[in-house]
Amino acid sequence: MAQELPIIESLFDFFYLDNRKISSFYAQLTGNGSIESYKEIHGISDEKAMEATIGVPTVTGGKLGTKGSSNSGGERFYNATDTMPREMIDKLDELGFINRELSESNLGQLVLMKGKLGIVDVNMLRGIVEPALNFYLREAKTSQDKAERDQAKEITKVKEDLIAFIKNVPFAIQSRFLVEVSNSVQEVWMTLNRDELSTPTHDTNFKHGEFMAGEWYLLGVLDALPHDDFTYESESDSDLQGVIRSFVEQLKNMAGRPNTSFGITPIAIFRSIGTSLGGNAD
């Protein structure tokens, strides 16, 4: 007999998944650790009875019976790491751990948002930044647009420093997530761990540019708010510590989270694949 499958209205196509955090949440909720695999045992038992009549003439008569049984079965082993993410997301939502609003009250909490996903791999830019910049400057310097020619002159002045800076920026994958709220757009900034991606970033950028087509879902911990510039200076700080502090702030301003953006530590980025009946992740 064919196995009876449950009715599934939608599938989650994961683009990014932090399995370590998913396993940690699962272990904390169950108290038994995360499940790596499970085993299903099934079996069928058949029993047959045989009966015959016997007799001894003029003395007695009776029946002789025998029974025989046979067993058949099997075992199936499943990798639970593929089923745990969706199960864990559903469970966290069911228990009220997941919020759906970017707000100060949800700082440090899990949020699930729907929006537009953009990806930029800084590491990919390192090798092409110099020839790409040279190509742009050659074109811009002969442009009919005076503003473009002036911009080329300004870039030429800082070209060497700009190239050196990009080549030495940590090899992060930066991502922007745009959420529409009441006819306005809220921007979320984050970095992605290369090992947790299901699709290479160069494939994404060559196919889509910065922003990927379609609608995506982002689950993560909200850990930064717009315009949250907190600074602290101690009287015991040395001049060197002051320089380091200033440099870190400039690094953030030049290559990190924009001051107007929220910041999130991502746990899962996925899209919903619905059936022909119109199922979705909402």
Mean pLDDT: 79
| Number of helical regions | 6
Uncertain runs with pLDDT below 50, 5 residues or more?
Answer: 1-7, 52-60
Order of helices and strands: EHEEHEEHHEEHEHE
Which structural class fits the helix and strand makeup? alpha+beta
Helix content: 25-40%
What separation lies between the terminal Cα atoms? 34 Å
Using only C-alpha atoms, the radius of gyration works out to: 31 Å
**How much strand?**
35-45%
> What overall geometry do the principal axes of the alpha carbons give?
globular
Let me know the largest β-sheet.
5 strands, mixed, barrel
In which order are the strands of the major sheet placed?
Answer: 5-6-7-9-8
Total strands: the figure is 9
